[in-house]
Design a protein that fits this description.
Layout (H helix, E strand, L loop, with lengths): L1 E2 L5 E3 L7 E3 L16 H9 L5 E3 L9 E6 L10 E7 L3 H9 L4 H8 L2 E7 L12 E6 L9 E3 L3 H6 L2 E4 L5 E5 L6 E5 L18 E5 L1
Parallel strand pairs: 5-8
Antiparallel strand pairs: 1-2, 2-3, 4-6, 5-6, 7-8, 7-10, 9-13, 11-12, 11-13
Helix pairs in contact: 1-2
Length: about 210
């Protein structure tokens, strides 16, 4: 097992890529925990994984999903540009995004930035196994404007923790009724590990700096 210096995850090359937490709260914040790049996608292919690509309008289906979204403009919801799910691994789900695009779209996906990670159980699924979705942005890391992402019906009823990445230190979480919200710190080990009254009750998320 190879441990990447300064990264929250270890990479296990026993047949395919697996992402696991390194339980060190003092770990430095990283700019990249998981990059959708050519090398990563090639390794996923070498694993023999097959990601079942889903249309952006469909609900999440599979233990691991990957979404690519555009920036929020004028207070609107960020558009979901591509979505893919897999029962195999996050890398397989990310590889499935590529199958949906032409050459230009593939290049955009390869350069997309991981913004946040959604988990169906508290404490990032570390206490109990569950589903996970990685949200990628096609306009770079978070700034004050951020990305305003609306969960699909599955995640509205099942999101229990959120982890941020690439300058996405906060998530403004609104409940399903859209009448109550809270700005969660989503650094590793912060309050985003448990969503409290927003647990399984998320109508909107806005990841921002």
């Amino acid at each position: 097992m190879e441990v990447l210096s300064g990264v929250r995850y270890t990479v296990n090359f026993e047949g395919c890529i697996q992402l696991r937490y390194v339980e060190r709260v003092e770990m430095k914040r990283v700019s990249k925990m998981f990059t959708v790049g050519v090398a990563t996608l090639a390794l996923a292919a070498l694993c023999g994984t097959s990601a079942s690509a889903a249309a952006a309008s469909e609900d999440s289906a599979g233990r691991y999903c990957a979404w690519m979204v555009g920036p929020a403009e004028n207070g609107d919801v960020s558009p979901v540009l591509a979505k893919s799910c897999s029962e195999v691994s996050p890398a397989a789900a990310a590889a499935g995004l590529v199958s949906q695009g032409d050459g230009h779209a593939i290049s955009a996906i390869a350069e997309a930035t991981p913004l946040m990670y959604w988990y169906s159980n508290g404490n990032y699924n570390r206490n109990a196994a569950g589903s996970m979705t990685t949200i990628y942005g096609n306009a770079g890391p978070c700034d004050s404007a951020g990305y305003r992402v609306e969960p699909d019906s599955y995640w509205k009823a099942n999101m229990s923790s959120i982890l941020g990445d690439n300058n996405c230190r906060y998530a403004h979480v609104t409940n399903r009724a859209l009448n109550s919200a809270h700005d969660f710190n989503i650094d590793f080990g912060a309050e985003g590990a448990y969503l409290g009254q927003w647990d399984n009750n998320v109508g909107l998320t806005k990841a921002h700096a």
